[in-house]
């Protein structure tokens, strides 16, 4: 049912939300109506490539990213003008954990360091030698890992000291982009909560970590200033996008939080499962604080909602690596053959840690391994084993979430990498032992940002008021649950052999 005003008029006819989306391989603009439905044929998407180095570096040029996003905004602005419609607000979601240094004038002095940059691996041990890991995790909801700011900041001190000296501010891309447009770097609680230096239960920076790092509070967005929208574009951008001036532009939110919202997972009875290039499983808790369990992270959706979960650096990229490396049949034939195989029939044990490990062991130095191959092992069997192995990694995250928040009624799946393969979706249901429901929102993350903006401007009372479109429900097959449990046991044993035993 469409959301309506007090006078009974459909908000979908009068309210439009521009949604900015900065992902790990593309930037885009989209348009949503007052019922959180994507308006077709509006917006633009542009791809980009990260720069990588042999020693584990993953960097992005912030100026290039800003230029691409501006181009996407210009395209949408022109489309809306031609259609004679105006935006009510601008929503923004971007990948979590990235950061850059900026000088006094807001110009970048470092590239954006991506969450998959592992050059700071040795500095994880430096942090562990100075602070108690468990106590720090309980405060910040993050572990010492290359995904977060602390280790990367220490790496910069030793490897790019001139950049650290020149940096007046430390920002995520969203804050950098808004500083260009509005002259001030407005940020969000959501984005700060993914830095590794934020206490999500207190909604403030962690002083113990700040004392160890080359950063002061004055170089970061002030906690009391977070989440406030900007409205007045600087003159050059007002001239470029006159119809976007004078409306609220909400600060960038973490993409994972927005994905939960957009896929309808805003209460603990619905857990989200997202598999794109990477992967994540998350539960949203609308409460002021939570005891954070070991193995998981805890961030913020906003000031009233926590998001608890785990992430994999290896999601759809595992499928992609197998596809480009092995001699596999066509996509349709591959799907058919994989679906026809019995779980575990390949007798392989696989650790899909091609890009290191985040949840639950947080070993950036961990790498992929396959055990049990013989001369008879086929490429399709290796592919099946790799997809099962990712499902088992999610099972480990799921078990910890269930211990903290209880068993959900269903798991909502999103992400192109997973939804394009019914066989893989069925593996997830069998491995978790819970129904897996496919979310049919093509842009769940952007939709989530739009929903939160609709709530902020008062167009809807609560983000759960507008449910997402869903489709197939994959029911777990009880006869295979023990098979997956046995495979998980073998996977854990291989992990211990490779990464925990001297």
Overview of this protein structure:
- The chain has 502 residues and is of the alpha+beta class.
- The protein has two domains: 11-255, ATPase, nucleotide binding domain (Nucleotidyltransferase, domain 5, 2-Layer Sandwich), CATH 3.30.420.40; 264-440 and 469-502, Nucleotidyltransferase, domain 5.
- It contains 17 helices and 21 strands.
- It has helices at residues 62-83, 121-130, 133-140, 149-159, 161-166, 173-182, 189-192, 207-212, 235-240, 255-262, 316-325, 331-340, 379-405, 416-419, 422-432, 444-456, 481-499; strands spanning 16-22, 26-33, 44-47, 51-52, 58-60, 89-94, 100-102, 112-113, 169-171, 198-199, 204-205, 253-254, 270-275, 279-285, 297-302, 305-312, 349-351, 369-371, 410-414, 436-439, 470-474.
- Strands 15-16-14-13-19-20-21 form a seven-stranded mixed β-sheet.
- Helix 2 (121-130) packs across helix 4 (149-159).
- The termini are far apart.
Which terms would index this structure?
Nucleotidyltransferase, domain 5, alpha+beta, five-stranded mixed sheet, single chain, disordered N terminus, seven-stranded mixed sheet, 18% strand, 17 helices, 2 domains, 502 residues, 37% helix
């Amino acid at each position: 049912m469409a959301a309506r005003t007090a006078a009974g008029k459909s908000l979908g006819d009068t309210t439009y939300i521009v949604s900015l989306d900065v992902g790990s391989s593309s930037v885009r603009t989209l348009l949503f109506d007052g019922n959180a439905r994507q308006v077709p044929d509006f917006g633009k998407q542009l791809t980009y490539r990260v720069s990588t180095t042999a020693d584990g570096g993953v960097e992005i040029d912030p100026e290039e990213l800003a230029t691409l996003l501006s181009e996407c905004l210009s395209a949408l602005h022109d489309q809306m003008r031609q259609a004679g419609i105006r935006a009510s607000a601008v929503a923004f979601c971007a990948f979590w954990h990235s950061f850059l240094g900026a000088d006094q004038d807001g110009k970048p002095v470092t590239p954006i360091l991506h969450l998959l940059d592992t050059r700071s691996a040795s500095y994880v041990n430096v942090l562990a030698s100075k602070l108690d890991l468990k106590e720090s995790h309980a405060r910040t909801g993050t572990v010492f890992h290359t995904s977060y700011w602390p280790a990367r900041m220490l790496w910069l001190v030793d490897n790019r000291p001139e950049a650290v000296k020149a940096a007046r501010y430390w920002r995520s891309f969203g804050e950098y982009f808004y500083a260009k447009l509005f002259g001030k770097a407005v940020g969000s609680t959501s984005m700060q909560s993914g830095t590794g230096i934020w206490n999500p239960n207190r909604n403030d920076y962690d002083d113990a970590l700040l004392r160890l790092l080359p950063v002061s509070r004055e170089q970061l967005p002030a906690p009391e200033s977070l989440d406030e929208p900007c409205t007045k574009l600087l003159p050059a951008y007002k001239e470029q996008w006159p119809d976007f001036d004078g409306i609220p532009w909400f600060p960038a939110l973490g993409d994972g939080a927005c994905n939960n919202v957009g896929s309808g997972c805003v209460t603990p009875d619905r857990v989200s499962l997202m598999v794109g290039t990477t992967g994540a499983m998350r539960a949203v808790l609308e409460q002021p604080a939570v005891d954070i369990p070991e193995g998981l992270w805890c961030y913020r959706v906003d000031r009233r909602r926590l998001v608890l979960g785990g992430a994999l650096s290896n999601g759809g990229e595992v499928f992609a690596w197998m596809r480009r490396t092995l001699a596999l049949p066509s996509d349709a034939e591959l799907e058919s053959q994989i679906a026809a195989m019995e779980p575990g029939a390949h007798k392989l044990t696989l650790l899909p840690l091609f890009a290191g490990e985040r949840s639950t062991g947080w070993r950036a130095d961990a790498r992929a391994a396959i055990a049990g191959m013989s001369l008879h092992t086929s490429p399709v069997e290796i592919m099946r084993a790799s997809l099962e192995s990712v499902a088992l990694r999610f099972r480990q995250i799921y078990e910890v979430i269930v211990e903290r928040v209880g068993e959900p009624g269903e798991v909502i799946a999103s992400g192109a990498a997973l939804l394009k393969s019914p066989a893989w979706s069925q593996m997830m249901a069998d491995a978790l032992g819970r129904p897996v429901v496919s979310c049919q929102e093509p842009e769940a993350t952007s939709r989530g940002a739009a929903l939160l903006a609709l709530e902020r401007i008062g167009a809807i009372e609560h983000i759960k008021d507008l449910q997402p479109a869903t489709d197939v429900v994959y029911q777990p097959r009880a006869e295979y649950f023990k098979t997956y449990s046995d495979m998980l046991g073998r996977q854990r044993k291989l992990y211990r052999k490779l990464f925990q035993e001297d």
